[in-house]
Amino acid sequence: MKRAVFPNRLLPYLLVLPQIAVTGVFFFWPALESVRLSVFRTSPFGDKSFFVGLENFRKLLTSSEYYSSIVNSFLFAFGVTAIGLGAGLLVAALATQKIRGLAAYRTAVLWPYGIAPPIAGIIFLFIFHPSYGALPYWLSFVTSYEFNWLLKGWVAMALVIVATAWTHVGYNIAFFLAGLLAIPASVLEAASVDGAGAIRRFRSIIFPLLSPITFYLLVVNLIFSFFGSFGVIHAVTQGGPGRATEIMVFKVYNDGLIGLNLGSSAAQSVLLMLVVIALTAIQFRFVEKRVTYS
Amino acid sequence: MSADGAAVASARVDALPRVAAARRGRTFDWGTVVVHALLILCVAVIAFPLYYAFVISTQTVPEVLGRPPLLRPSGHMLENYAAAWQRSNMARLLLNSAVVAIASALGKIAISMLSAFAIVYFNFRGKSVAFWMIFVTLMLPVEVRIMSTYEVIGSIGWLNSYAGLTIPLMASATATFLFRQFYMTVPNELVEAAQLDGVGPLRFLWAFLLPLSWANIAALFVVLFIFGWNQYLWPLMITNTETMRVVVIGLQDLIPRTGTHVPEWNVMMAAAMMALLPPVAVILFMQRWFVKGLIESEK
Amino acid sequence: MKRWACAVAVVAAALVVGPTESLAKTEISFWHAMGGQLGDTVNELVKQFNHSQAEYEVKALNKGTYPEVLTGAIAAYRQKNPPHIVQMFDVGTQTMLLSGAIHPIFQLMKEQEIAINWGDFIKPVTGYYSKDGNLYSMPFNSSSPILYYNKDAFKKAGLPDKPPATWKEVGEFSKKIIAAGGAKCGFTTSWPSWTMLENTFPWHDQPFATNQNGYTGLDTKLLINGEFGVKHIGQLAAWQKEGVYSYGGRMGQPDPKFINGDCAMLIQSSAVIGGFKKSLKFEWATGQLPHWGTPYKKQNTIVGGGTLWVMKGHKGADDKGVAQFMRFIAEPHQQMWWSVTTGYVPVTQTAIKNLEAGYHFKKNPEQWTALSQLSAKPTPNSLGHRLGNFVQIREAIEGELENVFAGKKTAKEGLDAAVAKGNDILKEFAAASAQ
Predict the structure, then answer these.
(1) Residue C356's closest CA among C331, C332, C390, C374?
(2) Looking at domain A54-293, does it have CATH number 1.10.3720.10?
(3) Across the strands, what pairs with C102?
(4) Per-residue pLDDT tens digits of chain B, which is 299 residues long
(5) Does C260 sit within 8 Å of B260, measured CB to CB?
(6) Bridge partners of B285?
(7) Chain C residues bordering chain B (beta-carbon distance below 8 Å)
């Protein structure tokens, strides 16, 4: 269908100018700078720099710490996504009967989304604290294992995963509920009249109908927890203990701004860019599909 | 898919006896109760950490350190909150967060509306270039351009300034796409009628599109406000004086990690509560807008 | 009197010269990393200077942690707008020295014709921050790691009221205290790399790295995985298993363990004396960093803390103000006041003598402990550390220490890994700086 348009010649350029300007200055220029910096070795004060080709990349790809950070990033992302989707689906399953007050419940589980992950991390830091926290205290009645996140890497990782998942669960639930409410009542009624129990209804009808949303949330959760988790790591563990929670985005910051190794940090940025592009391509290919579905 | 489901369902309906089904209808009351109970349990589990944080924020240090942990609020709320307010210069922190949140949200909305308007309602050379430029920003979150963005901001001289804190955040592909999507649903007839009346593009935007967009704008504002308030990496990188820090970062000073004071988790939790209250309040009181904003902006 | 005359002269000059001449004081920017109470003390010091003369006004800004101050200073320098004075911590020394962005302090003072008795500074300080016999940065806040002990816990275990002098005693005392219920753990250490390696090695006259700890060359390699290192860290790891030692994290994170009585002893910087005086609820005192005894010599520890560096890139006219401020803080009166208020050691002999004359150390023995560790004449092993990218090296070391204390690696394995990573970082620094 031919859209109606306005004939002005200059105006559209002026209209897109603000966004293009910001995008150009703060997105493209730095992105290109990252690529440039990644092939140089620069001294901390920037007074000496010389071209080293792919040396920074080679160093990264042969360093065990870099691979650890990749593993940690995926571990973190999968942990957050699993908990988030699991809990989300559970609540969605509970709400199969479309009981009254769903909107109220939704609000009641959604509000943690407003809590910044670093702050959630601090709260959980306290709850998990080996000396003051309530959790190790209660757990000490069950087991003598010392849940010291300062020393044990997996405890620290669990801490940050739980804190982040906590803020994000509501988001998943909101989407699942929206999907649930979109399922025609007639379908569910027909199934229940037919004798299908709640679990059966969930498995055969609701879950399949929710799968586009589930898949979409899977991708979004993975992307968010892969890239958006800098704050909680910086605020709570700073990548410790012993780099157990050092994720890729934290390493970029740490190596660059604290370690002052601009070349390596930029190289890591470039590699991260490739990952984002891949993930975003997946997301958009899928979002297209979802749009045609609904 | 819904068509398949309905077909399956109706096929089964024809196949099974009705009596048992009708009787089962009555037991759904129990089912509802169970579901409510389980949902309330979920809500409680999710609420617990915040409840606990609140309780700690009302206790004294000995109470915090005492064993077993007290789960009831105590009576020292005011002094803890006052201490947190003073020690972390909370007023300034909250102000900075508010500036970042509101300015970046409004800025994003304004800029995105204009760009989307241009893309939908004009044909101009380089339109698709502009579109793709905007799209590509989705692939460039701050985390992948940390050092270089820091340098760029530095060379413009925007380090440690409100400009540096807010303007770079104002480019948003998702907002632009949202508005674009929305504008494409506006009927052609409206535009044509307006053009026949001699209405110019800007007037059209202001008098026709804007009123139609309020719902989207409100929803988007809520989401972007929270996003802006909770920004962490960006403010961390480009501000480094106490007067320019935002609240999610300023809290760090209060964390009893280092230092020679007895660890005052009660004051820390009081500060945390003050920091998270605005965005959470926004969700609580504007939840419908918020949910709409989430769902719309993820399309 | 002089000031009053000065003021009159200024006013007269202004009247003569006319309203077009600005009377505003020249601003000197001073970036530091002192937060909280220390920050307040810095502000007080700066205020004293500003009131003592009328030409210059120093503006002190807390720019975050030491690494953040460094990053900020670098960014500002590259934008051609650096602060005049930057406080940088000990481990940033090599980075600053090789940067070409600093104006060596001895040169500045010479140019400004301000006489400073460089020989008055204590040896460990000049040793750390000098190159070719000249001081490059102005000593400001120097500290040393010492042992703090909880007198109440000692009393409960029936121990005499004196600190353990040897590591053997640390182990014995800890076990007695734990058995008597005086504390849950014997001791903990803050800043693990700084206290247990970077200082313990020079304290025992052991080399931390080749090239005299990096002083004589850039192709430096770490030596912490030798016999001494393995012995020391191995003992800590064994004690961690027994509960005698309780690892508490990096930087000052373990402090709460001591403050709330969980651990009876703490090894931490002398810089926290000021804060502890105000906040500890039990009787406490200090002792020297424990020593292994024979066959190791008791040498000296290395100063920690930071110094003030002057950055290039300013108008020549500002140099005078910077130099005056530097002279101000080195004066005995200011040295004494700063040291007494914060707990940092006084860095000039004159200040120390004055404090002694006032019986300050008799009344506050804990303030003497750190100084007593800094009084011996340094050997090549105990002059200081000149390692580039030291922040990253420390991180690598502490990461591996955490592996050792968590039982994941033996002391030898952990230290070997730390050395491998550290050497790599040193190589990188050498390559980036040697152009």
Answers:
(1) C332
(2) yes
(3) C311
(4) 333 333 333 333 333 334 434 444 444 567 778 778 888 888 888 889 999 999 988 888 777 777 777 788 888 888 889 988 888 788 999 999 999 999 999 999 999 999 999 988 888 888 888 888 888 887 788 888 877 888 888 888 888 899 999 998 888 888 888 888 888 888 888 888 888 888 888 888 888 888 888 888 888 898 899 999 999 888 888 887 778 889 888 887 777 655 555 667 888 889 999 999 999 998 888 877 877 777 766 65
(5) no
(6) none
(7) 35-36, 61-64, 68-69, 72, 75-76, 78-79, 81, 190, 249, 251-253, 255-256, 259-260, 272, 274-276, 278-279, 281
Cα C270 to chain centroid, rounded:
9
d(CA C131, CA C97): 9
**Residue C27: enclosing H or E segment and its boundaries?**
strand C26-32
Q: What is the DSSP string of A227-254?
A: HTTHHHHHHHTTT-STTTT--HHHHHHI
Cβ-Cβ contacts under 8 Å, A260 against chain C: 70-71, 74, 95, 389, 391
Q: Where are the domains of chain A?
A: 54-293
Would you state the structure tokens that stand for residue C228, as one six-digit string? 């001494």
Chain centre distance of CA C113:
29
Contacts of B67 in chain A (CB under 8 A): 137
Give me the residue spans of the domains in chain B.
2-56, 82-297
Token code pair at residue C240: 């961690």
C57 and C30 in contact (C-beta within 8 Å)?
A: no
* DSSP category for residue C184: S
B171 touches A27 (CB < 8 A): yes
Domains and their CATH numbers in chain C: 25-143+304-362 (3.40.190.10), 145-301+389-433 (3.40.190.10)
Alpha-carbon distance of C244 to C340, in angstroms, equals 33
Measure the CA angle with vertex A215, ends A210 and A219; round to 5°.
145
Residue with the two structure tokens 């190289």:
A267
Thinking of the domain B82-297, which architecture would CATH place it in? Orthogonal Bundle (1.10)
Gyration radius of chain C over CA positions: 23
Contact B258 C251 (CB under 8 A): yes
